[in-house]
Amino acid sequence: MSNGEKQPVTVESLIRLKRIEQPAPEFWAQFNSDLRAKQLAAIVEKPRWWERRSRVYGIFSRHPLALGTAAALAVAVFSVGEYRGTRVSSPVAAGPDEDAYATAAAAAPGPSEAPAALRSSPLQAPARSAIVEARSVPVKSAEESYGRESRPTAAAPIASAAVAPDAARDESMQFERSDRNVVSLGRSLSAMNLAAIQAAEVAHDQFALSKSFESPVSADGGSQAVEPLARMTSPSDERRSRIMGDAVVQTASFEGGTVSPSDHFASRLPDDRVFDSISRYASDSDRLSIRF
Amino acid sequence: MLEAIKVIGKSLVASPERVREADEDLDVVRRVQAGDVSAFDRLIVKYRGRIYGVIYNLTSNREDAADLTQDTFIKAFQSINRFQGQASFFTWIYRIAINSTLTHVRKNRSRSFFSLESINSEEPVSREIIAALTDKTGADRDTHVRELQEKLNEAMQKLSINHRTVVTLFEIDGLSHQDIAEVMDCSVGTVRSRLHYAKQLLQAELQQYISA
Of the candidates A97, A109, B120, B197, which lies 20 to 30 Å from B203 by C-alpha distance? Predict the structure, then answer.
């Protein structure tokens, strides 16, 4: 170079020419003042939501194992708790008749909820009598209430059925005014719960009698309690009886010749099922359709 | 001339110096993390030129480069407590700068115009290259240098942002392949491949200035 010979120009040497594209020294004074202003503005500025979220993600990414283990443990503990709670709280699936238990239990917990539940309950008279009775004697022990209500006499529900909703409301207000003691309130609520359950059981028995529900009788003639699960019919049985009901009735009418199909049908099936079976048939001009 | 360039390049990637530099930076960062906020100014003064140079060569716009450099230091200052020393502060702040620049370039892809710094033709390096390129002197030489600078920046801007970054960090800033791989979060092979491809493109673009 010093001899006047030119060095070959390469791509690398051309690119390195850009190294000397440097700002003037006074540029850095302005740069520093701008940077200082931006720093102060950044301190005052509220962090945006995605920046806060990125900080949370940063915490998670820094301790993934510990946080993951804690999350897994929390899920496991929650799942076990839920599983145990499910097993304790649902021993038997509620069938159509078992709704009485749930209704009475729902009516029992709060004095303010009781009137509405009483009005809507299908077991109005027995449940109401049991609850009103429990409220009128709030300090009665649970055992006493249970022993009194466990006798399924017909007089008690009938007499208590005469209690009007207004009377129940008045008694409820009296109860709220007079019983301020927490201990006695707890006792009365417990007694109420037990009484409501007993009333539901009584009502269930009465419903069973009124529908000619025959409970199995043991060989020695004594009555035997039927388990709720035994009383339930499986969905497959219901479906089979619904589909095959007409065929069975018609077959019986042809074979016997004495039983009227309509009478037999009406005596065995409730009204809604009759309507259901009728609506499954439709006839046009030249065809008959059956809907399953 | 080329020897001088090689010396400059090697001094930037010298390993013992880098290790010592990283230790010094870590001490300063620990002080900042302990509450000595003014210690961060040392890091600003130390790295502002290089950070600005990298961003300027990626954007070819001095105003954008100044803004992005300031944003880089603000982000680094705000996140200084997250710096744990697993990488060097140099790599960390370079990564912040590169990511900010990539975001800016991708966002403003349709709006790019040059705002170039002036080349000091009296610098030894530039004087050698310019002398090799032209025999002209005085005003003609300055015009020729200006034209070369624009052609060079046009050629750089024709590269993709990843190729431009590799060329900038290796040829202009003097980082090693390993450092570039750390900064760009890719493999060394990818860095070499991008560098080779980018040089081929630049050679095709700047053919008229390159000696046969």
Answer: B120
